[in-house]
Write a structure and sequence with these properties.
Layout: H1 2-10, H2 14-21, H3 30-37, H4 39-42, H5 54-65, H6 74-87, H7 106-115, H8 118-132, H9 134-146, H10 149-152, H11 155-169, H12 176-189, H13 206-216, H14 221-236, H15 243-257, H16 277-284, H17 289-297, H18 303-319, H19 328-342, H20 347-364
Helix pairs in contact: 1-2, 2-6, 3-6, 5-11, 5-19, 7-8, 8-9, 8-12, 9-11, 11-12, 11-14, 13-20, 14-15, 14-19, 14-20, 17-20, 18-19, 19-20
C-alpha cells in the first residue's frame, strides 16, 4: 500500500491517494507509519512561486507535534499532509551517484553552488556526507545559509535546519532525496558565499535574548511570523553547533529582525478556563482570536495546560482544513508551540507569539 501511495502522490492523484489510505490510516500506529513512508517524496514537493522548500520543512515539523497529540489525532494530520503533497508539483528526482573516493572540501560545494550546477552540488553533498558524516555536513550548510537570512526571510536557515534534522533522525532512510532538495534550493537561492565567522562574537545575555524574542514575536503578517520561525529553527539545531557558531547564527537573526518595537497583545482583563475541545473549537473555528487567547492565557502556566493547548491548536488547524493550506499554517504552529513550551514563564512573549500566529492563520485560512 505504501508504494502505491507514493505513486499516487507522484501522479498528483489526490482522490486516489485519499481513497487508498482512508481505512488504513485510522488503524493503530498506521497514520504515523504512513507519514514516515513519505520522507523521500516529501523532499521534492514544491510550493510555487516560492523557491523555499516549505513542504519538506512541514514534514519534519510534524515530529515536533508528537508530544501534544493522541493516537486518534494523527489521521487528520497525515490526511492533511497527503492532500497537500498530492495537489502540488514535485521536482524531478535526481539520479543517485556512486561514491566519490577523492576527499571533497566544503569549499568545492560552495563553488558548485555559485555555478548553479544542481546535479554537481548534490553529488558533492553526498560525497561530503559519506566522508564527514551528517552532523558535519549540517553544520557547514547551516553556517552557509546564515549569511542569507535577510535575503531569504530566514528560510536559508529554517528550511535547511528542519530538512537536515529529519535527514539525521531518519537513519533508516537514504539521505539522498534530502541532499538533492538542498542542492536545488541552495542553487536556486544562490547561497554560495560563506560569511566570516567571528570567534569573538559574544552571545547576548538571557535577558537580552528574551528582549529579542519579544521583538520577534511582535507584529503580524508574513515577515514577522518568519522572525519567530527562524529563531525556533536555530534553537532546534543548536546541538549541532559550537557556542561561537550558535552565537553567529543568533547575531544573524538579530540583524534579520531589525529595529522592531515590542508590542504586547490586547487581551481581555480575565482569562477563561480552557475547557473541552468542542467548546474551544466552536470559538477557534469562528476566528475569534481574543477569545482563543483568553483560553490560552490561563493554561500556559502548567505543563498539563500547555500540552492541552498545543493539542487543541493542532486539532483546530486540522479540523479547519478544506483541501488547500499554506504550509506556514503548520510551520508557524511549530514555532508557537516551541515558544509556549520554552518560555511559558514569559506570558507576554507567549501571548505575542500566539497572537502573531493566529492573526496570520485566521487572516489566510
Amino acid at each position: 500500500m505504501l508504494d502505491q501511495l507514493l505513486r499516487k502522490l507522484e501522479e498528483s492523484d489526490r482522490d486516489g491517494a485519499a481513497d487508498l489510505t482512508r481505512d488504513e490510516i485510522t488503524k493503530d500506529g498506521q497514520a504515523w507509519k504512513i507519514h514516515l513512508s513519505l520522507f523521500p517524496l516529501a523532499q521534492r514537493v514544491l510550493n510555487p512561486p516560492f523557491i523555499n522548500p516549505h513542504l519538506p520543512k512541514m514534514h519534519a515539523i510534524y515530529r515536533k507535534f508528537l508530544p501534544y497529540v493522541m493516537e486518534d489525532d494523527l489521521p487528520s494530520l497525515v490526511h492533511l499532509e497527503i492532500k497537500e503533497f498530492a495537489r502540488r508539483p514535485k521536482f524531478e528526482a535526481l539520479p543517485k551517484p556512486s561514491r566519490e573516493s577523492i576527499p571533497v572540501p566544503f569549499s568545492k560545494i560552495e563553488t558548485a553552488i555559485e555555478m548553479g550546477n544542481k546535479e554537481r552540488v548534490a553529488y558533492l553533498l553526498y560525497a561530503y556526507l559519506e566522508q564527514n558524516g551528517k552532523a558535519e555536513l549540517a553544520r557547514n550548510l547551516l553556517l552557509l545559509g546564515s549569511g542569507y537570512m535577510e535575503q531569504s526571510l530566514g528560510h536559508s536557515v529554517s528550511c535547511t535546519a528542519f530538512i537536515l534534522l529529519e535527514m539525521i533522525e531518519r537513519s533508516d532512510q537514504d539521505p539522498w532525496p534530502a541532499l538533492a532538495t538542498l542542492a536545488d534550493y541552495f542553487c536556486n537561492g544562490g547561497f554560495h558565499a560563506a560569511t566570516d565567522l567571528d570567534e569573538t562574537t559574544d552571545l547576548p545575555s538571557e535577558d537580552m535574548l528574551i528582549q529579542y524574542l519579544s521583538k520577534a514575536t511582535s507584529g503580524s503578517g508574513f515577515l514577522n511570523l518568519h522572525h519567530t520561525i527562524t529563531r525556533y529553527s536555530i534553537e532546534q539545531v543548536r546541538h549541532l553547533l559550537t557556542e561561537s557558531e550558535y552565537a553567529h547564527l543568533i547575531a544573524c537573526w538579530i540583524k534579520f529582525i531589525g529595529n522592531k518595537e515590542i508590542k504586547a497583545p490586547s487581551l481581555d482583563s480575565t482569562s477563561e478556563p480552557l475547557g473541552d475541545y468542542q467548546g474551544f473549537y466552536q470559538v477557534f473555528s469562528k476566528r475569534e482570536e481574543r477569545q482563543v487567547l483568553s483560553f490560552m492565557e490561563g493554561a500556559i502556566s502548567s505543563q498539563e495546560g500547555r500540552l492541552k493547548s498545543g493539542r487543541y491548536l493542532i486539532k483546530g488547524v486540522c479540523d479547519m482544513y478544506q483541501g488547500n493550506y499554506d504550509p506556514h499554517f503548520l510551520t508557524g504552529l511549530g514555532s508557537v508551540l516551541w515558544v509556549m513550551n520554552d518560555y511559558w514563564d514569559q506570558p507576554v512573549i507567549v501571548m505575542n507569539a500566539l497572537s502573531q500566529y493566529m492573526d496570520y492563520f485566521f487572516g489566510q485560512v
